[in-house]
Amino acid sequence: MHITPLSGSRAEIGEAHGRAHAGLITHSLEVYDRLFQDFVGLDWTRARREAGRFLPMIERGFPAILEEMDGIARGAGLDFEDILTLNCRSEISLTQASGGCSAFALNRDGTQWLAQNWDWRTDQLHNVVALEISGHDAPALISIGEAGMVAKIGMNEHGLGVCLNAIRSRTCGEGLPIHIALRKILESRDMESAVAVATRDRVCSPAHFLVASQESQAVGLEVQPGEPGRLPPERGMVTHTNHLYARTVSPRVEDFPRPDSRTRLARLDALLLERLPPRGEIDEGELFAILGDHDGEPLSICRHFNPEQPPEERMETLFSVVMNLTKRRLTLRHGKPCESDESLTIQFGDE
């Protein structure tokens, strides 16, 4: 896997993204057409109409990103409405589809780490892209996500990073769609402005954003249309899977987690406490080993395809990311972390 550099104005960034990954973007539309039909009974035409209701929210909270989305459509030879629908896919399918995903922030001996597995449908494996975006009006950033989408998981040149855990819920209100909000966080220059995306702009449907910075700050934000729940570090760690547990959010928002979410969270906590030395340096390899854990398989942190599960539960790990925010270094393993030591490493500045 390689990284795609994108630079210039919003329109230029979008058009270059669309041209570079036109085939993958078209394939993503086909994947989500099937997913919307399977999960919520919408064909692509109806899903496009559903996505239109989020347009005023984006115009209010992050209008600049619309120019980039229009550029993606132009570069890929698609309609703007197709790219809008792709970037609102979580909101359209939120009542049924939830990914796996296990994420953690860890501070050890002055180094701030941020890491996660992204678990999703097998047919999106080859539509994963790594984008390095250098715009005229925002910090340079790296986003690892799906072709045609403006952001997902990543880090910017200021050493600020974000991870994502899907939350299955029927709640949907006013605010930015999840993937639009993730991009706005990645364009934030500090933790205060990143957290403001959740507290001021708000996010229209529930998710968990794990935000950390090279200044050894970290917070879990259980975002939703109201005030987000906050999860501060305990023993230098914030961990999350796919259920709500911040006391201020969980009584007010109903979620429908996968049955393995709590056991994966408990396993993640245990591994971070038991497998890593309490003092001294650690490296990316040790953290990828935790993300590659198979305890409780097939419902483990590292997930493999399991045909015996119901179709809506057949998720597998499509990529793993470990970020050393102190050194502004991101390392990606495409596919399962247990299957390959081959990594793509991107760093801002000198080590």
From TrEMBL:
InterPro entries registered for this protein in UniProt: C45_proenzyme-like, Peptidase_C45, Peptidase_C45_hydrolase
Superkingdom: Bacteria
UniProt domain Peptidase C45 hydrolase: residue ranges: 107-337
Transmembrane feature ranges: none
UniProt-listed PANTHER family: BETA-ALANYL-DOPAMINE_CARCININE HYDROLASE, PEPTIDASE C45
Protein name according to UniProt: C45 family peptidase
Protein source organism: Halomonas aquatica
